Amino acid sequence: MLGTASAMTGKYRNNTCILVEVKQDHFIFLDCGEGSLNQLVRLRGEEGAIRVLKNLKAIFISHQHADHHLGSIDILTTREDIFEQNNEPIPPLYLIVTWKYSNFMTSYHKDIQPVLTNLQLLKNEDLLFHTQKDEYWEDICDAERIRLVDENVLDEFQKYAGLSHIETCRALHCRDAFCLTMTAENGFKLTFSGDTRPIARLVEIGKDSDLLIHEGSMEHGLQKDAIIKKHSTFTEAINVGKDMRAKFTLITHFSQRYSKIPLLEEIENEENVGIAFDNLVVNPSNMHQLRLLYPALRLMFSKEYDEMLNKSENLKFYESKDRELDMNPDDDEQEDPKSELIRKLDLQYKQKLENFERIKKWRRAMIDKEKPPSQQEMKRLSNLINKVSPDSGSRSSSPSRKSPARGTSKSPPPSGAAKSTVRRSKSPPQASNIHEKLLKIKSKESPELVKNIIKKRNISPPSPVRLSSSDISDRLLKVAKKEGSQE
Length: 487
Ligand SMILES: [Zn+2]
Fold this sequence. Notes:
A hairpin with a 2-residue loop joins strand 1 (about 15-25) and strand 2 (about 25-30). The longest helix has about 35 residues, at about 335-370. The chain has 15 helices and eleven strands. The termini are far apart. The protein has two domains: about 15-300, Ribonuclease Z/Hydroxyacylglutathione hydrolase-like (Metallo-beta-lactamase, Chain A, 4-Layer Sandwich), CATH 3.60.15; about 375-485, no CATH class. It is of the alpha/beta class. It binds zinc ion. Zinc ion (ZN) binds near residues 63, 65 and 173.
């Protein structure tokens, strides 16, 4: 753990950065807050840092808040410098980032300093499976677990990084924030929350993780602040770990109010939970021993710990007062401002979801309308067209056909007597054929009607409104009847 603080870098905690050694000499960074490179050198020494950078396979950036990505440029440029100084070819490095961050990097590359030359880009959005339902994803593929990423590129990356699976889900934080889960070739599953409120879809993708690294920015007494700032409390992080049956949950991303040590009341009795601090190194065999450090940590920082406890007690007192106020809305006193803000945010969020739901419904309706007619419908349509103009497919339209004299048309009568003359198409006609045929009909009868059909069938030019094939059949029948009666 190279950085375990939220928001600001402090003396004891750096901004978020996690270095994962997937297998020997296969490294991945999960977020890179400012100063991550310095932290790496502090932890591994200069030689160790060079080794990590030379064997770095990927950098994952969960979202575009500065405390999660400002250190990435330093990492990228230093890595390239190391190879260039030794005249060695620069191996690829995968950037797993949001589209927003990739835009930012492109601008940086163009206008400030070239950093993208030896990078491969994987977008967090493309690693999502489509079946996820959330406020942003226009979920139109319920049936299949598909995603946008090119499977060949993904395979190549996974082999390169020593992974057997990688997947993202959207976090509930700012827009374009992501959580990640990845499984190493040896089967070890690691899930990283990034910044988020507790969410069910993270539980889903992180099911049975060996290690969950979840943000816990503050104590549960500050839950209102956590909701407003879209972060999680310690208790909420622990519960996410339990819900996904994670073998171990490591809490990180502490507010600077816990710069030396977080309050341990919610954490210390949980067997499979640990707290992170800068330069902590965990592996599958030692993470369960983290709890043994708590008494020593509490003693080392006893002064700060007592101060935090006092603050926490005061907080609980005022919270209980606020709750009383909230429960008695008839009182003249005003609603607690935080509760009021949460209520407004909640309302705003619900309205946003409703709007997205409306958009999804509208899109679905549009897609349903856009469905091409079935084979059967096309055949029926084709027959009807042929009934109206049986020879239209074999003749080219000539100027003389544009306004034929009534009664001289070669169209067969629409009655049963004409059945033997109806030419049946072996396969459903293509849009261009239909267009051609309809144009020919247009030249004979009801130009306005056929013009409308062409327009509404969206053959040319495209139009969002379409008639169903049965509507078209009815209209064509009318044309045919009219023509027959005129003959
Ligand atoms: Zn954030």
